[in-house]
Design brief:
The protein is built from five helices and five strands, in the order αβαβαβαββα. It is of the alpha/beta class and 170 residues long. 29% of the residues are buried.
Length: 170
């Protein structure tokens, strides 16, 4: 697995609470958009959270792979959430007309969530395990790295299966 930068649990928790407060001002646009982002509802799931923007070229390149990842693992414990950071939601909708998303979407127009995760480039993605811990962070998107990205996700999905099997045995 790649080296992992982890924000402190306190900063993540307080940042998530702040982002949820701000999120109530964002109206969902259709069934694919989340009105609020509550990662606690994905306990015992692996979450691939991808921050993207309409102006980001590598984001356009990443969407077909993220869609395929979602399709391949959605029934095996993976939840994919795309977090859009455009200030104007209309820009995101125009992007999605050309680059459709099959996964859940959330709008962060104020950048509160992006700031909480200390984004340093776009796209930025985080792989979060079934216990809510960030296990991987990817900055940018390179097609040459997708096998490595997927391998890390598969390892966490296998951990989920192993943990669930242990719970059944106890």
């Amino acid at each position: 697995m790649s080296q992992i930068k982890r924000p402190s649990l306190l900063s993540m928790t307080s940042g998530l609470i702040l982002s949820l407060l701000f999120a109530t001002n964002v109206q969902a646009q259709g069934s694919e958009w989340l009105e609020e982002l509550d990662l606690s509802q994905y306990q015992e799931k692996v979450v691939y959270m991808d921050f993207w923007a309409s102006w980001c070229g590598p984001c356009r390149e990443s969407f077909p792979w993220i869609n395929a990842l979602h399709d391949k693992y959605k029934n095996k414990g993976l939840v994919v959430i795309g977090v859009n950071v455009d200030a104007q939601l209309e820009a995101a909708h125009l992007f999605l007309k050309k680059n459709p998303a099959k996964f859940k979407l959330f709008s962060d127009p104020s950048g509160t969530l992006a700031e909480q995760y200390n984004l340093i480039g776009m796209p930025s993605s985080f792989v979060i395990d079934g216990n809510g811990k960030i296990r991987e962070r990817h900055v940018g998107f390179k097609k040459s790295n997708v096998q490595q990205y997927e391998q890390g996700i598969v390892e966490l999905l296998n951990e989920l299966k192993s943990n669930q099997a242990n719970l059944v045995q106890e």
